[in-house]
Each structure stands twice: as C-alpha cells, then as structure tokens.
Amino acid sequence: MFPGLPKFKNPIYLDYAASTPVDPAVLKVMRPYFSMAFGNPSSLYKQGVEAREAIESSRKKIAGVVGARISEIIFTAGGTESCNLAIFGAARKYKPAKKFRPHIVSCAIEHHAVLGPIKTLTEEGFEATILPVDKNGLVNSKELLKAIRPETILVSIMYANNEIGAIEPVAEIAGLIRQNNRERRQKHLPEIIFHTDACQAAGSLDLNINRLGVDLMSVNGSKIYGPKQIGFLFVRDGINLKPLIYGGGQERGLRSGTENVPGIVGLAKALELSQKIRESENRRIGKLQHYFISRLVKLPGVELNGPKPGILRLANNINVTIKGVEGEALLLYLDSFNIAVSTGSACTTGKADPSHVLLALGRSPLQSKSSIRMTLGKQTTKREIDYTLKVLKPLILELRKTNNFLL
Ligand SMILES: *Cc1c(COP(=O)(O)O)cnc(C)c1O
Fold it and tell me: If you ran DSSP here, which 8-state letter would residue 41 be given?
C-alpha cells in the first residue's frame, strides 16, 4: 500500500495489556517443575514434598509482596477465575428470597470476568447496581456510597481498566465501605465485602492490600510477564467464600484440583520482578506514552480516550478514537506492517459489538468502532513508536478516503 515506507526489522508489539511475553527469568524458575520436581503436591514422597515446598514458598513470596498473610493467598487458573471466585464466592453464601434480595454494586467499565458473573447472579435473583463512570472512566466514590442499600453484600470495582488505563479510587472506596460496615454492624446488617480486579494494575501500581484496604483482590500472571492460566485471589482472613470448584479440597477447599506447580512458581517470580521494577518502568514507559499521545492527538480527527497521562492513567496505555477510520481495518493494515495493536479488549475479539468501556465514556457506537488501543511494555522503544507514527499517518488518511466509514 505504501511502497515508500521501509519495513521495520522486528515485529512491533503494542498489545501488552492483552498479554505479555514470559520473562526469561520466570521461565527459568518454572522449568524444573515440568519434568524434574513434577510430583503431585499432595503426595508424601520426595517428589511430592518438593512440589509442595515450591507452592508454599511461592505463596509466601506473593503474600510478602502484597502485605498479606500466607493463608490469604489462593491460587486459581487466572484472572477470570479469580474474579469469578470472588464474586460468586461472596454472593452465593446468600440465597435470594422475596424478603431479602442480596445486592451487588459494580461499575460499567469492569472486565467481562466481573460483569459476566454479576449478570448471571441477577438471573438467579440477586440485584445489581452498575454505576456509570465519568467521561474519563472514573467512578465517583460518593455516587457509589449512595448506591449502597441495607441488602448490599458486595462491591466490585477494578483497580485499573484494561482498555483505557483509568485508575480507580480503590483505597478511597475501601475507606468508605469500612466506615459503612461499622454502622452496619450496629444495625445487624450484612457486612459489605469489597473486591478489586487488579489484573491490569499488578505490573505497575502499589499492590499492598493494607494500603488499598480491599477484602478480595484478583491478580493474574499473563499481564505481568508470567504464564497464562495462573492467578491468585487474595482473600482477607475472616471472609468465607463459597467455592466454585469441588473435589480434593486443595487451596483451603476454595479451589480443588492438582495445583499448577510451574505456573505458581512462575507467577510468584513474575510478581516479584514486576513489582521491583514498576517505578522505574513507569517512568520510562510514561515518557514514551506522553510522547506517543502528544503526537497522535496532533493528527486531525484523533482524540484520546480515558484520563490524560498522569496519576489517573496507567503509564502503558494509549487509546484513541480516529474519526472516519474503522478500528479493525486499521488493526489489520498495521498487522501487515508487523505492528500489533488492539481494538478495545482482546478478550472480546470476534464479537462485532462496540466496546462497552468506550460507550460508558459517552462515545457513540461508531466512535467506539473507530478506536484502537496501543499498550506499551518492557520491550517498547522510542524507535518503535516513531515507526508506528510514520505508518499510522498515511494509513489514517488512506482509510478515510477508501473506507466509506463515515461519522
Ligand atoms: C486479562 C484480564 C482479566 C482476565 O484474566 P485472564 O487471566 O485472562 O483470565 C480480568 N480482568 C482484567 C482487568 C484483565 O485485564
């Protein structure tokens, strides 16, 4: 399409919010647990004990990073399962009845791993309030407080959004809920449990559960340079959840099934590494983000979605609406230049629906479909961004001419 543009020598990956490559140091610590220390962690002979020790030392490591007790870390098969366990687990201790319809509060830009379980619960008789967000994607904590009812049992608000990088006021909300719970105890009302989906936040924000004040927190490996299909749920002592999966009673009965030993070892290493370098990486990536966004919004018809770069936005996230350009067409053309980007969240690829997150910001369905997300990571360089800008400029003009995708 553009013979004048030389190809970049390496693929340019700008979708770190969808998945990250496993860090070589993570892969290295995982390796022995596939073929050498392969025992079942519940077995009593040497190979089993070795595997058990690997799990427990990983649990200790993770507990240390997030400031939790060792017994408060429950391993799961990823972010989706952690969120499902948190929400179904907290809700299904209650049975909806005519006299008492348990109520859940969440927000419109949550990941489907949270919205899906809540929708299912409403079909079982639970009630839910899905709070709107402002034009930047932020939840108003006073509005949240107003939504709380005597029947409210659970609040779930994400730490950081996967599509627009908005960072929600989780610590502030936790403080309000704690205060509310003190009053509720006196009135003999059920205490509210507060869950946060921290899958996007784990690589770049403070994860200390005491500073955050949350009761439940979901984290996964695949967004922090760890393996896929592994995650954990922080479950504050004293909170009882109903399990999703029944069987041999592993993970304090909350998650039966033989543990994913290499995954657990990899998750602990990945979390430790990413939390150690998060501040320096945020500074480095934040500069690239500022640069990228400032160049993008100078192009005619390009607007940023989500908060402006700074304390309210993840340092790696760029999401723009490009007037008159179909996001998916742009994605495919960029792929032909070896540049990987995303339209909305990867988890909903295949669905033609416009992003529920962009709609919640007040974008129209057409504007939502004219949007792309580019997320930066450990391997991103300024040269890659310069090349991407160089490709984007003529592509946008060309697609506007040929696409008949009008606003
Ligand atoms: C990726 C992601 C999930 C789902 O995690 P999986 O490990 O893919 O199941 C949930 N919430 C957020 C915010 C995410 O970014």
Answer: T
Q: Give the separation between CA 205 and CA 146, rounded to whole angstroms.
A: 28
**CA 160 to ligand 1: nearest atom:** 13
- Ordered strands of the 152-156 beta sheet: 73-76, 231-235, 216-220, 193-197, 152-156, 103-107, 127-131
Within 6 Å (CB) of ligand 1, which residues are found? 78-80, 83, 111, 113, 158, 162, 197, 199-200, 220, 222-223, 231
The reported pTM is 0.97
CB-side exposure of 136: number of CA atoms within 13 Å? 17
User: 107 an active-site residue?
Assistant: no
Dist. CA 294 → ligand 1 center (Å): 29
Query: Which residues share a beta bridge with 373?
Result: 319, 342
Look-up of token digits 């949240």: 144
For ligand 1, atom 14, name the residue with the nearest CA. 199
Give, for 232, the enclosing helix (H) or strand (E).
strand 231-235
Centre of ligand 1 to C-alpha 357, Å, is: 15
Q: What is the DSSP string of 316-379?
A: TEEEEEETT--HHHHHHHHHHTTEE-BSS-GGGTT--SPPHHHHHTT--HHHHHTEEEEE--TT
44-95: pLDDT as tens digits: 999 999 999 999 999 999 999 999 999 999 999 999 999 999 999 999 999 9
The Å distance, Cα 113 to ligand 1 centre, comes to 7
* pLDDT tens profile 166-201: 999 999 999 999 999 999 999 999 999 999 999 999
pLDDT in tens, 268-283: 999 999 999 999 999 9
